[in-house]
Amino acid sequence: MHTSNPVASHSTSDHGPGRPRVAVVTGGSRGIGRQSATRLAADGFAVVVGYANDRHQAESVVEEVIAAGSRAIAVRADVADEQAVAALFDTAASEYGGVDVVVHAAGRAHTALIADLDLTDLDALHRTNIRGTFVVAQQAARTVRRGGAIVTFSTSVVGLAFPGYGAYSASKGAVEAVTLILARELRGRDVTVNAVAPGPTATDLFLDGKDEETVAGLAAQPPLERLGTPTDIAETVAFLVSPAGHWINGQVIRANGGII
User: Fold this and answer.
1) Would you call 165 a catalytic residue per the annotation?
2) Per CATH, the architecture of 20-253 is what?
3) 48 phi and psi, to 5 degrees?
4) How far is 199 from 210, CA to CA, in rounded Å?
5) 86-125: pLDDT as tens digits
6) Alpha carbon of residue 77 to chain centroid
7) DSSP letter string over 42-91?
8) At how many degrees (to 10) do helices 31-42 and 55-67 cross?
9) How much is the average pLDDT of 200-218?
10) How far apart are CA 188 and CA 51, in angstroms?
């Protein structure tokens, strides 16, 4: 390993034929992002794990990927900072020769009634979820190679309209708009752009602050009668970025066990 800008690495300098496909995964140090990173590595991708603050967790993802026989580096980047995101993509190019897939799993959540919401929390949601998505999408649009894929993350709450989720849903509605328009702007590039919109999913971010009764109520809502798991969502991501999923483009995939 090395500990310069990319905090951990397992790679060679050969950028010639036979190199693996390359995936950039933001928010890759935990939850759905982490599971997506390890799942894509299992499919043979070299993975660039983007993270905001938790270097230890990001390094552990890299170690897990390397132990499984694939390649990974971790790079710190605030997704709302265009210079940091450009550096993230530059690192992917310098380490592995380019970018084929971008999975933008970094995001922020906050719940409050609209009447009670502190507007500083609204600003924070907008900075990470809207500006961050736009900045990453912009770099992805400039960078992803032919045959590649871009996956963003919305939420099923955009359609479910749960009370308390007004600000969060508004920010994710913007993610959907950016995603669907980008899919059309990339006409002729052979690059797909889709959003995954999970329902209630058992991540630390989701479970934080919820009592057992609340969690049980949410788990009972899908006809499948359980919470989603990060693995469920990562499998959806893996399909969308695979050749088998390449005909799906410009869509929002509501991966929620059938909640309506």
Assistant:
1) no
2) 3-Layer(aba) Sandwich (3.40)
3) -105, 110
4) 15
5) 999 999 999 999 999 999 999 999 999 999 999 999 999 9
6) 14
7) HTT-EEEEEESS-HHHHHHHHHHHHHTT--EEEEE--TT-HHHHHHHHHH
8) 20
9) 82
10) 31
Neighbours of 238 (CB within 10 A): 22
Torsion (CA) 81, 179, 89, 169 in degrees, nearest 10: 40
Q: Where are the domains of the chain?
A: 20-253
Q: Which of 51, 96, 165, 168 is catalytic?
A: 168
State the alpha helices, DSSP H only, in the chain: 31-42, 55-67, 82-96, 119-125, 132-143, 157-160, 166-185, 204-207, 212-219, 230-241
Amino acid occupying residue 146: R
In the block, tokens 């990562």 appear at 234
Q: Are 30 and 232 in contact (CB under 8 A)?
A: no
